[in-house]
Structures
1.
Amino acid sequence: MPFLYQTFFNFRNLKNDTLDLSNREIFFVGENGQGKSNILESLYYTSYGVSFRTHVDSQIVKTGEKDFSINALYKKSEEASHKISVIFENGKKRIEKNGKKIQDRKELINTIPCILFCHDDMRFATGEPECRRFFIDQSLTLYDSSYIDDMRNYKKVLKSRNLVLKNKQYEMLDVYDSQLAQYGMVIQEKRKKAIFMFNEIFGNLFEKITGISDVTINYDPSWKNFSPASQDLVSYLLSRRDTDKLLETTMSGPHRDKITFVKDNTPFVQTASTGQCRLISLILRVAQSVYYTRATGLKPVLLMDDVLLELDPDKRTKLTAMLPEYEQLFCTFLPGEPYERYMHDTTKIYKIEKGEWHE
């Protein structure tokens, strides 16, 4: 079983203790503000070294304290276990894997494959284009650690290119155009393949739950009709240079890619109901889990933070019946929700109140 335990020290409002996580499904039940989501946040934190709720680590420290730490034991297989520790002290974060400090978060990301379902996922349907780019990029990094380097290389060149445009150091642009084309095409090709795979999963799930057919994910890359080995892209960047100079920024590239949801070749989200948009975001996460399993042969850990609450009973039942194969499942519920109907023989229930838990 993947997560065996999690130990907390000054993590949000949670008591300083060890939580047994050795069941296949664990439901955390409690009123809002009691600490349910804090537990899911801690699991995500030990998986990725960052929070899904804040970019400021100091905000996680328990009120009145200065430092925090969490430790998790994760059993990857019968032969392999990993102890992950995240320590925040003196304003700095340190991550250790099996007692050894990791120098790059990339070393952590493929250790515990967590898929998070949360309220903010709605932005994947209704938010700005960068939200959908983030989702696809996150899906790729779940199993392809080289994609992290691809993104870092591209962003580094993009930042440098934008700086020389702003400072009018145009003699540097030839070098940066060549690098931007090289790194950018790698990203574009990987995104294209990922979205093709997502479309094999997403549309069928959406139709089964909503009855609406032919909803697909459309990828509209900023650079169209260029092959990875072609020099035509460098020529294209040169042809667009006057516009970039005028606006002092790079106006084309993967950072401008558009990913949209379409039905019958027309945009879908603009006419979809709020409930349909909510389902898009939930089904994207289900598809992300299936995509990860197809790419790796491994099953993820699912974290579901109050996401069933806004669905009507029929869609809730359909969605829970279609959850992907998982290694472990953690869900949060309010006391009045019918969580008993989603239980299995392997499910443990913790009641959460004021940062403490009891069975």
2.
Amino acid sequence: MPKIHIPVIGYTQGGRQMMTTAMSAVDLVSMVTKPKAWDPATTSEHGNRARDTPHMLGIVNYLETVPKYVIGCAVVYLTSKEASFEPTTVPNVTTENDAAQFGVLSIDIGARFDIGDGQHRIGAYEKIVQSRDEDDPLIQNLRSAGQPLIIVIEDDPKSRAQDFADLQRNVKPPTASLGQSMDRRQPINNELSDLFTTVPLLVDRVEYSKDNPGKLSAKLFSFKTIRYVSGLLLVGNGYRSPATMDKAVNACFEGEANAEKARKTLKDFWTTLGELVRFADVIDEDVPVPELREATYLTSAGVLYAIAYAVHQTIQTYDITTPGAVRALDDVSFDRAPKDGNGDLVLPVTAEHTIFAGTLINAQNGKLEAGRTAWEGAGMVLYKHIKETLATD
């Protein structure tokens, strides 16, 4: 049977022949079979998880808008009847004691790759190829660019499915804080990083590796929390998906006039927040961060969301500066609900104990509530307090 031949680097894992290579994205699209739905009862075919169309379209947008893109390896399969690996000798290259071997993968014409991992990446290529003309610049770019592949010779469909499960188990995704702080294509991430060297409250007090600083951590907030708080401050709470909110927040930095306004709002907010009594004690090093965390709700993400929401509502409604809105909260007690002589919370928690009773704080058990409804309710309570403060000034 006629064959096509692809240069590869061969190696083995778990006793199986594997190869790594790269193919033109356009050519790859024509050589893969459409993934079928995973069905554990089927023994003759390898299935895949359902395709997430929004995720795939996000990759399409990434390829269309980012010139210096990077796409990781896809894992694809062929059977031992369809393909074979032949090592080759390369002059002046010694590989006898190496795990890798140069070689050629010979594939039957008409054989198709079965996608193990990477269906959304390959689906994005397919979407672009099908929607654009051959002379389109992006098509030409994809035709000359390489999509890295790991090709596995595996006959058993169930083993292919097991590989997918193993790949997901053995990959640790970054925390949201780490991933966001490294993503410098989004203007908000760059702007915040600049603040971390100038705003006293944030200098050396931002946690990047975790989304929630530990009880004894000297870090006040995670990058993820600061980013969302800053987004609420700039655009409010009207966006229900992270993608749409990100788009709105980043749009605040389009055009120099808008960017300067957004930067000033952020700097004023975080600077003035640091002037609130409890935070000021930390900045002055009179109170360590763990002690602040133990005594108050101020390091809780929900409380910070509520503050940002209240301040956003205030500056949108009243002729007042961001510092003025934040300072109107200076007489709010953010102390935790009190405990009795045995160290147990005094229950039920009431408004006399904390302003957040019944919103962020569960009145019956005294625990912090998670979720949007809780912090939005708390934000409205703070907004009402700001309005009352402004009315009496």
3.
Amino acid sequence: MTARSTRRTTAAHSRLAAAGAIAVAGALLLTGCGDQTKDKDTSSGGSSSAGSAPLAGKLPAEIRDKGVIKVGSDIAYAPVEFKDKSGKVAGLDPDVAAALGKQLGVTFQFENGTFDALLTGIRSSRYDIAMSAMTDNKSRQQGVDPTTGKKVGEGVDFVDYLQAGVSIYTRKGDTGGISSWSDLCGKKIALERGTVSQDLAKAEAKKCPAGKKLTIEAFDDDQQAQTRLRSGGVDAASSDFPVAAYAVKTSGGGNDFQIVGQQVEAAPYGIAVGKSNTQLRDALQAAVNAIIKNGEYQKILEKWGAQDGAVKESAINGGK
């Protein structure tokens, strides 16, 4: 699953060359982002009373007393997080959050936001955490722009819970000779702003020779990028593999898109938490490890076809 691919910012920017990463591709036929200026979605990840929750005591008192963890998420990144036909928040991340809520005795309240503003939302206390198919990488941990190395804000810590890579896809039957990132010079690519996909595209653009510019069109969410590709406005699009695979499988009944080449930048997805909020971070890690141990984690991944991205144990800041 996106290195959302900041999905998706990463060493890219998050959003798989290794065999294990390619395995993700095999089973992740499924996986996003939204508009922070729009709605606040009060759908929750589920909870149990603090009295019956085995890990409630690990939470900071103020969160335990409120009974709510506010989650910043770009809720337009199916199948990781999206709104179903009834308007309810659904997907892999909300299901994982619901399982964590049972362990911690709180409700995870998802609030819709543009992906590239989620970390800012944590810094301003708009959200307690961000859970949005976000790639754990050093640039986000340190709060620096991956392309310039300049400080852009306070870094965050990550509680890792899944592995995913980044993919390129084109219109079905119209690859334009694109099979890797190095084939994009002279082409146009659509992607979500603030993701690893954007970081990779920027890095590739610097390598293109004169006269063969790579044009990058960055959008607020992945659905807009898909629409741009579908209409023929660009030659390719990029997102985390789970999201790309899901788009290939579902858009136009499977007739709109095709993935080209292999996944790259295999990396963990992480729940982002403010650097100073170590107690919440550690409580989340304990909850992730608890659902891994009790089998609920595996059931959720299998539900969304993401089982090959499973981790055996949650790490803190495991991204490179």
